[in-house]
Amino acid sequence: MERLILPMLIIGSYLIYHGADTVRLAWGTSATPEVIRLADLLQRRGGNRHVSVTDFDMGVHFVAVGKKDSPIKDAFVPIWPAVPGGPEEQEGPPTGTPVAIVKDDSFSLQFFGKPKSTRGLVTGAVLGSDVRQMLVQKYPGVRLDQVPVIEARRSAPSPGFGRTLLGIGTVVVLVPLALLAYAVWGNRRSSALRQ
């Protein structure tokens, strides 16, 4: 039974983390995406996380992340507010322009076409250092600290699902802790009876 304690603690902690993250994302998020211009999204704090972003220009370079000899796990591309009368295709945003990052779980038309909008969930995810470094190489001068990350095609999460994960994770963590406490108490009690 002792061999199950550590795996149960790890699994329970994982469920608690993902349950709390799901509840956090669901807070104030509607099932219907809010249509919003990218310039407005970049200026606001809070609000509906489920968005359909419009009026943006997209970089021509993207960063694909995956393990060696395996399919692409995630792809990232910066977007910035559309420049009226600007060139049809730009290498990158004008200097000093705030950007957002679109994260997609696969190659899609998102990266090869010039979409008029992109729908997804603003997650507040932090870019990994490897992704950040590759984006900076492709887009020198772009500031990537505290940029919104829009996970393409991701819908609003269910708060009920998040609470369920939290509950199951809590039980999975408490059971081995209770068994461990009982084992320690039993050892102390048997030691005291022997004396």
Structure description:
There is one protein chain. The chain is an alpha+beta fold and 195 residues long. The protein folds into two domains: 1-29 and 158-195; 30-156, OB fold (Dihydrolipoamide Acetyltransferase, E2P) (Beta Barrel), CATH 2.40.50. It is built from five helices and eight strands; from the N terminus they run αβαβββββαβαβα. The chain has helices at 2-26, 38-43, 109-112, 129-138, 159-194; strands at 34-37, 50-54, 56-58, 63-65, 74-81, 100-104, 117-122, 149-152. Strands 1, 2, 3, 4, 5, 6, 7 and 8 form an eight-stranded mixed β-sheet that branches. The longest helix has 36 residues, at 159-194. The mean pLDDT is 80.
What's the layout of helices and strands?
Layout: H1 2-26, E1 34-37, H2 38-43, E2 50-54, E3 56-58, E4 63-65, E5 74-81, E6 100-104, H3 109-112, E7 117-122, H4 129-138, E8 149-152, H5 159-194
Parallel strand pairs: 1-2, 6-8
Antiparallel strand pairs: 2-7, 3-5, 4-5, 5-6, 7-8
Helix pairs in contact: 1-5
Please outline what is shown here.
The protein is α+β, with helices and mostly antiparallel strands. Helices cover 42% and strands 19% of the residues. The chain folds into two domains: 1-29 and 158-195; 30-156, Beta Barrel (OB fold (Dihydrolipoamide Acetyltransferase, E2P)), CATH 2.40.50.
- Fraction in helix: 40-55%
Any guess at the CATH architecture of the largest domain?
Answer: Beta Barrel
Kindly state the mean pLDDT as a whole number?
80
CATH topology of the largest domain: OB fold (Dihydrolipoamide Acetyltransferase, E2P)
Q: Structural class of the secondary elements? A: alpha+beta
By oligomeric state, this entry counts as: single chain
Whole-number count of domains = 2
Order of secondary-structure elements: HEHEEEEEHEHEH
The count of β-strands is 8
In the CATH hierarchy, what is the class of the largest domain? Answer: Mainly Beta
The main pleated sheet reads as: 8 strands, mixed
- Spatial separation of the terminal alpha carbons: 27 Å
| pLDDT < 50 stretches | none
The number of helices is 5
Proportion of residues in β-strands: 15-25%
